[in-house]
Structure formats: structure tokens, C-alpha cells
DNA sequence: CGCCGAGTTGAACTGAATCAAGAAACGTGG
DNA sequence: CCACGTTTCTTGATTCAGTTCAACTCGGCG
């Protein structure tokens, strides 16, 4: 759990009390590759922090598997829209590697928000940074070519290339596996 | 300013004191069509609420004008990434119609966050809903056809069609003006 | 009038998707 | 350690959605 708490502290300073409250509300788990953290069609009641390992968020569009998000160690995984709106959503989250994760429930997080102004602030900042990340990806998708997007991923998250199957990276970038394979061949 | 404060209250309840503090920190303005609220290359120091009117966020990619976001009355406008990260950004925000807006500065907002837990909460919720909106648009861009995207816009924000020039709607949807014109002709 | 911006239409072109085979790599059980 | 099937990745041929470039229409307005 240390990795998780350290990550939180780096976003916004927390008092000892708040940290303690956080760790009481969080449960740590070791799970195997392939484990489904969140199932499509249900309300996402947990947010997960990946202490070690790798996960991806995905859904099916016209029968095809689309990878929506990839979370490596040090980042969060959830069906964010469902978690916020409290509505079921089409997204699944699965582990791509055996992982150690920290899970905190919606109800517990709400309680922490209500009890600690400093945690509410932390939450606001976390969502804000999430928004910035998504906006960056959005911009790429908006007006960058397939190759530009792959290059950018190579630069920002090179480790993923070897850990995530090509097809998943392709749909993450919004292109087909074949196209990505060809782009790769050129470079 | 009433429209603004009402919108806030609807997101999360606020005490009289908090509302008063908010209205003291906010300045209301009437501005004409074409006015540039935020200029590319600068740090975005204000967030704007459109009480009446219309704005768009845009930038230049390879010399071409790209509309990133459109904010009608009842919604917010800003260069969100710049506002959060405190870094300059390529986005401009301009008014497409004469508008009445409420502006609140970064510094004032920070002060409100620090002084009022309830406002920090409001901020967290606002960013959360922004994230959900962006995720929805992202999903469209990710794996929906040009026509699907246009249809969805027609259904969710039909009023924009007549208020925003075609070229701006096109780049907002991630397509060219010609393509949008053809899609329109078919329907 | 004639110009100007906004939208439409046409024809040629292109990046990426699709469909279809194969070739590597990988893990599991014999 | 090898043989097997499965999954992952590559490569080729064809098709298609959307772009590009260019010309043309329409309505407004000085």
C-alpha cells in the first residue's frame, strides 16, 4: 500500500490522520493475469490503483474489441464514467499481467471526501489531471495521423510496446492491427 | 450573475456564505461577437461561465483552424488544460455571438477552494462532469463514423447547427467542411 | 451592381480498413 | 525436449470513407 499512499501524497500534501483514514478504507490485493476488475453492464463501485502490474479498459463496438485505456503501475484504473455517473457502462477492466492493486470503494471515498477537506482537494486534483491526460489523447485522435499517434506513444510510454499485444495498442490508438503492423515495419 | 449561481447550486448545494463569497469573486461582463476571451500562447487565468451567448475554443494545426470545443449558454469556457496545468497552451477562446459572461480568476478560485470545503467539492464535481463529457466525445471520435458523429450532435445540441458556421462544426467533429456538407445533403 | 463569405458540388487521390493467407512465438501436456 | 494448438504478428490485394483541390452557387450588403 505504500506505493499508493506515496503517490497520493505527491499530488497533494495530506495530514497523518487523512493518510491513516485512507489506508483504512483501502484494501490491497494480489490478482492474477486475466482477472476482471470491472465487468461491463455494471456500475463501477471501485477505483483501483495499480501498485505493480498492468491493466486495460476495453469494450465492444460492433463486436470488435476496443481498448480504451491502459493503466500501468503507478496509475489508476476504473470505468471512470460509470464511477462518476453511477450508471452502468459498457467498459470492462482486466489485468494484462499479475498485479498488486489497491482498491477503494465509491462509498468509502465519498465518506473520506465528506470528512476531510484535504482529501476532497486531492480528489479534485486527481480528476483534473485525469482530464488533462484525456484531453491530450483527445487532441491526438482529433487531428493527428496514425503514425504520429504511434510515435507519441513510443515516446511517452515505450514500455507498453512490449507488454501489451499489438491489437490492443492498435485499437487504443484508434487504428487496426494491420495498419499498426505496417507503420511499425516502416520505422 | 443569477444564472451562474443557480447553475452552481444545482451541481452541489452551497451555503449562503459560500454563494456570497462566490459572487464577490466573480465579475460579470457583456462582450461583443468576436471578442477573444483567451489568447493562444498565454496561461489561461480565468474560467468563464456563459450566461447568454456562445463561444468556441480553437487552435491551429498545420495552419488549419480546428474547433476544439463549443460552449453555449449554461456551460463553461476555458482553455482547460492551461487553466489546470498553469502552462501556456495553443488554444484560443472567442465569442461567436454577443454574450454575457461570468469570469472567475484562477487565484480567486483557489482562494475559494481553500476557504470552503463545499466549494472544493463543487469544483471536484464540475471537473468530474467535464471529464465525463470529454470521455463521451472521445468515444465518438475513437470509433464512430463521420455520419454517426454528426447525427449525435444533431440529437444532443441541435441548436448549434444554425448558430455555428459549418466549417467550425466540421472540425469540431474531426472532419472537413466538404465532407460535412455532403453528409448533410444525404440527410 | 459587383464583391465577399459561407456553403455546395464534382473529380481525382489517399490513408486506412477489410478480407485473406501465412509466419512466428508461446505455452502446455506428453 | 519436442509436438501441438493457439494466439500474436506480418504481408498482400482490394475497397472505401474521407481528403484535397477546384469550380461554382447563393444571399447579403456596401
How would you briefly describe this protein structure?
The structure is a homodimer of 187-residue chains. The first copy, chain A, has 187 residues and is α+β, with helices and mostly antiparallel strands.
Keywords:
homodimer; 187 residues; alpha+beta; Jelly Rolls; 9 helices; 8 strands; 25% strand; DNA-binding
Describe this structure in words.
- The structure is a homodimer of 187-residue chains.
- By secondary structure, chain A is α+β, with helices and mostly antiparallel strands.
- Chain A has a domain at 2-113: Jelly Rolls (Sandwich), CATH 2.60.120.
- Chain A is built from 9 helices and 8 strands.
- The structure holds a DNA duplex (30 and 30 nucleotides).
Report the order of strands and helices of chain A: HHEEEEEEHEEHHHHHH
Number of helices of chain A: 9
Fill in the CATH topology of the domain at 2-113 in chain A. Answer: Jelly Rolls
Quickly name the level 1 CATH class of the domain at 2-113 in chain A: Mainly Beta
Largest interface, chains and sizes? A-B, 30 and 29 residues
> Please, what is the CATH homologous superfamily of the domain at 2-113 in chain A?
Jelly Rolls
Shape of chain A, please?
A: globular
- Level of helix content of chain A? 40-55%
Oligomer: homodimer
CATH level-two architecture of the domain at 2-113 in chain A: Sandwich
| Structural class based on helices, strands and sheet pairing of chain A | alpha+beta
State the end-to-end distance of chain A: 40 Å
**Sequence stretches where pLDDT stays below 50 over 5 or more residues of chain A:** none
User: Number of DSSP strands of chain A?
Assistant: 8
Mean pLDDT of chain A: 95
Kindly estimate the percentage of residues of chain A that lie in beta strands according to DSSP.
15-25%
Strand adjacency order, main sheet of chain A: 1-8-3-6
Largest sheet of chain A: 4 strands, antiparallel
Using only C-alpha atoms, the radius of gyration of chain A works out to 17 Å
